[in-house]
Each structure stands twice: as C-alpha cells, then as structure tokens.
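Quick illustration for those who missed Monday's session on complexes.
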Amino acid sequence: MAAVLALAGCGSTSRRPPIEIFPDMDRQPKIKAQTTTLRPVPGTVAQGQLQEDESRTTGIASGMYIGRNPLPLNRETLSRGRERFDIYCAPCHDRLGSGHGIVAQRSSWLPANMHDARVKNMTDGELFSVATHGRRSMPAYRFQVSESDRWAIVAYVRALQRTTSATLEDVPAELRRDLR
Ligand code: HEC
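Prediction with heme C bound:
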C-alpha cells in the first residue's frame, strides 16, 4: 500500500514531477474559451456581416440620397414590389398610393399621397430611406421588409407615380391613335 502511494506521488517532496500511472487525458493541447479575445483576421469579414455597398443599405452615398434604384428594373422587380407594397404600404397609402388606405379611413392618420409633386420629386434613395426609417408619423419598415424588397417597393412606387404623370409619348406609337 505504502509503495503504491509513493508511486502516485502523494506527500512526495521531490521537485521532479510525480509519476502518473493513468494520466487520464489530464493534459491536452487546447484553447480555452475567453482566454484570449478573438479578433477577426485582418482583411476578412465574418459570414453575414458583409456590407458590399453602403448606398444599397442606406440609400445614401457621400451624404446624398442616391438617385437610382440599385435593382434591375424588370418585370420580376416590379411584381415583387407590387406584392410587397400591397401588403406593407397599401393598408395606409391604399393600393394606388393616394393615401386613403383602410387604416387612414379608420383613424386620424394622414398618410402621404404618392402622387404629390413633393413625393414624386424625391429621389429613389429618399423613398428607400422613408420606407426604411419611417418619417414623422410614419413607422419604419426595415424590420418587416427586407432591404431588396424595400428597393422593389421603391421601383413599384415609381411605376404607380407614372400612372398619373404619363403623357401620350409614353404609349407605343402604334397604339396612340386608339387613345385620342
Ligand atoms: C401605418 C400606416 C403607414 C404605412 C403602413 C406606411 N406608411 Fe408611409 N406614411 C404614413 C403616414 C402617416 C405618412 C405621413 C407622415 C407625416 O408627414 O407625418 C406617410 C408618408 C410617407 C411618404 C412621404 C414622406 C414625406 O416626406 O412626406 C412616403 C414616401 C411613404 N410614406 C412611403 C411608404 C412606403 C413605401 C410604405 C411601405 C413600405 C409605407 N409608406 C407604409 C403612414 C404609413
């Protein structure tokens, strides 16, 4: 018994490390959590943190609202924009954007008319910013509506606005006669 205890190193005053019969993985090469602050490797970005183009996220470049929608203007963008507008904006602004949605009818809120010259004269970046952060009494939609959907909505608002400012020149020449 004494021999076993001595072997295990108990009570030993020796400066040499005790003899271990079963090390049981007591010592392993490893890094413990929180022992050093992990910093991103220079020149790398964590997954999901990439902000390729700030103007796309904010609608602003060099302190100015950007003029043009970064999304391609095509049928897909517009139909997505219409779908999202009808869900998220029409309750207040109505589906034509004139500001008489069901919420406006039943409350004292006064949503803007998208066909007012003031709103028509806004750049795409400013419209995006209003949808993102809200303005005065209008709530923000950045949590409900994704970034690209907000840009699609902007494209669709532009299409809505065209419906009240289009001229005969916007109609293909061969169809103009029917409208006169
Ligand atoms: C809950 C009601 C509500 C919803 C939903 C809503 N708005 Fe509005 N919006 C308003 C009100 C109210 C105003 C007027 C704000 C003011 O002048 O106080 C407004 C104003 C605006 C304006 C004009 C801002 C200005 O400078 O006068 C724009 C552009 C606009 N909204 C776009 C949108 C878009 C795009 C959506 C959908 C993402 C949307 N709104 C959804 C209530 C709403």
